[in-house]
Amino acid sequence: MADPKIGVYGLGTMGSALALNMAEKGIDIAVSNVTPDLIEAFVPRAEADGLTDRVTTAPDLAALVQALPRPRLLLAMIPSTGPIDEMLGQVIPMLDEGDTVIDAGNADFHDTRRRAVQLAEHGLNFVGLGVSGGEAGARKGPSMMFGGAQASWDGLKPILEPIAARFGDAPCVARLGPDGAGHFVKTVHNGIEYADMQMIAETTDLLRGGLGMSAEKVADVLEHWNDGALGSYLVEITAEVLRYADPHGSGPMVDAILDKAGQKGTGRWTAIEAVTLGQSATMIEGAVAARAWSSEKPLREATGAAFGSARLNLAVEPDDLEAALLAARVIEYAQGFRILEAASKEYDWSLDHAAIAETWRAGCIIRAKMLGDIATAFHEGIAADRLFLAPAFADVFAVGIPALRRVVAAAVTAGYPLPVLSAALGFWDTMRQPSGTANVIQAQRDFFGYHGFDRVDGKDARHGPWWD
Ligand SMILES: NC(=O)c1ccc[n+]([C@@H]2O[C@H](COP(=O)([O-])OP(=O)(O)OC[C@H]3O[C@@H](n4cnc5c(N)ncnc54)[C@H](OP(=O)(O)O)[C@@H]3O)[C@@H](O)[C@H]2O)c1
Ligand SMILES: O=C(O)[C@H](O)[C@@H](O)[C@H](O)[C@H](O)COP(=O)(O)O
Q1: For residue 2, how many other CB atoms are within 10 A of its CB?
Q2: Of ligand 1's atoms, which has the minimum distance to the CA of residue 37?
Q3: Structure confidence by residue, pLDDT tens digits, 133-175
Q4: Cα–Cα distances in Å, from 216 out to 14, 80, 451?
Q5: Which residues form the active site (predicted)?
Q6: DSSP element (H, E) containing 141
Q7: Which end of the chain is more exposed for a tag (fewer CB within 10 A), N or C?
């Protein structure tokens, strides 16, 4: 058996899939896990795929480090909170100058920046690798967002490119910047994922609850949309899940699922970073809020009992829903790239937004046809804070905004909650106002707090007459 090129620590859902992907692409690997069960479970899977010759199993972290030739490449696919710090505490003394540790989990980029500094103090490299695509993506080709030194990228590229998803011939992996840049881009990816999932759920509710369609019929509609400009992994899988019947009951499987959404944090982190960077991403915030509110089912039941939960007849056209969702999706990506641009400036990352869009074209959860147009728009020079002004989307908005307005108006009138679709319209109508309402805010702030304001005419009088 040849020397392993890389070690994989953590053989859970993602780690085991990524390891098999590497072995399948001809990369010799060593693997281990904190508990032996997942190591034992991994071996027969490697055997079943005919990959045993590529795999060295190690009983624990120390043996895994020993199994790796120097300079070592050690990839961890474990929870990126406490467990990664625990692991680093154990492994740093075992490693030698020039070795590299890769955190491929969903880490908070602040932690990644801190860990990069920590390892550098020991002459070690730390890479924050955002990995997207779920289990299937990890196994057959994920999208990967690399944050770390150029030298680390040069060393890992021969491993990451062969295992990555491909859009045409292009591998969906790129070095996006130093230290936390990769994990930050992955976090925003997940924020957009939250907003897209919520928008599709809101639209499904309008089609089922509002237009009385069966789950099967909605699946037909989404499948049709997926053949068009809305083509994307999330529209595709929503159509698929709507077709499943409940094996333990009767009716559609989705109706057997409790309407309380989980969240592990990346959406929340995106919203927090956006606000901190002065880039409020209302669609992502709306999606995070919708998940949080969904967990308060008893309160929703009590409020419905107290004030009625009935919804009125909904008068919308399915074509309007399609056009509205498409326009809202452009705004959702635009809000995402505004956060990325703000962070790029704040942390001096010089993010290449076209490369980010290209990395998201295949393998990841938010992969969508639209990402091709987005990448082209950036190559053609659109600024990252105004993707919605790209000529490629002018027609989308010409049709989609009036449709979105009709959909939101009808839904609001009929009592259908649209935290994310309505946020899209709120953003659009705010950004297209040359003169907004902030003058009143400035007057109020000055009135109660002497905060001052700038005058339209530029005159040097920063406080109102209420102070005279
Ligand atoms: N699932 C996804 O769709 C997905 C996609 C992209 C990224 N991610 C990220 O990938 C990482 C792994 O997720 P997963 O879905 O593979 O989770 P998972 O199936 O729950 O596996 C977690 C892995 O971490 C190990 N582990 C847990 N606590 C540990 C500790 N204190 N020290 C060392 N190892 C520990 C587990 O080993 P034991 O089971 O033996 O404890 C297991 O190997 C997470 O950061 C997650 O956010 C997940
Ligand atoms: O890109 C991906 O492969 C997914 O986004 C992945 O990272 C994971 O499934 C989410 O983090 C789940 O997040 P929630 O549990 O917060 O929905």
Answers
A1: 9
A2: 40
A3: 999 999 999 999 999 999 999 999 999 999 999 999 999 999 9
A4: 31, 39, 57
A5: 186 (proton acceptor), 193 (proton donor)
A6: none
A7: C
What angle (nearest 5°) sits at the alpha carbon of residue 353, between those of residues 287 and 361? 70
Q: Is 106 annotated as a binding residue?
A: yes
Q: Is the pTM of this model over 0.95?
A: yes
Q: Are 364 and 132 in contact (CB under 8 A)?
A: yes
User: Which run of H or E residues covers position 373?
Assistant: helix 370-379
Given this model, what pLDDT does residue 414 score? Answer: 97
Q: Is 265 in the pocket of ligand 1 (CB under 6 A)?
A: no
Residue 106 Cβ < 6 Å to ligand 1: yes
What pLDDT, in 10s, does the model give residues 262-295? 999 999 999 999 999 999 999 999 999 999 999 9
**CA quadruple 304, 307, 308, 311: dihedral sign:** negative
Centroid of ligand 2 to alpha carbon of 462 (angstroms):
48
Closest C-alpha to 207, from 224, 231, 190: 224
Nearest CA to ligand 1 atom 21: 12
In angstroms, what is the span from residue 194 Cα to ligand 1's centroid? 20
CA of 464 to the centre of ligand 1 (A): 57
Is 0.95 exceeded by the ipTM?
Answer: yes
Domains of the chain: 6-179 (3.40.50.720), 187-431 (1.10.1040.10), 441-467 (1.20.5)
Residues lining ligand 2, Cβ inside 6 A: 106, 132-134, 190, 193, 262-264, 266-267, 364-365
Q: Do 138 and 192 meet the contact criterion of CB atoms below 8 Å apart? A: no
Q: Is 97 a catalytic residue?
A: no
Mean pLDDT of the chain: 97
Which are the contacts of 414, defined by CB distance < 8 A and separation ≥ 6? Answer: 210, 311, 312, 313, 314, 315
Please tell me the distance from the alpha carbon of residue 377 to that of residue 390, in angstroms, as a whole number: 6
pLDDT tens-digit map of 358-376: 999 999 999 999 999 999 9
pLDDT digits (tens, 9 = 90+) for 423-467: 999 999 999 999 999 999 999 999 999 999 999 999 999 999 999
- Residue 313 has a pLDDT of 87
DSSP 54-69: GEEE-SSHHHHHHHSP
Ligand nearest to the CA of 193: 2
- Stretch 180-188: mean pLDDT: 98
Query: Residue 133 annotated as binding?
Result: yes
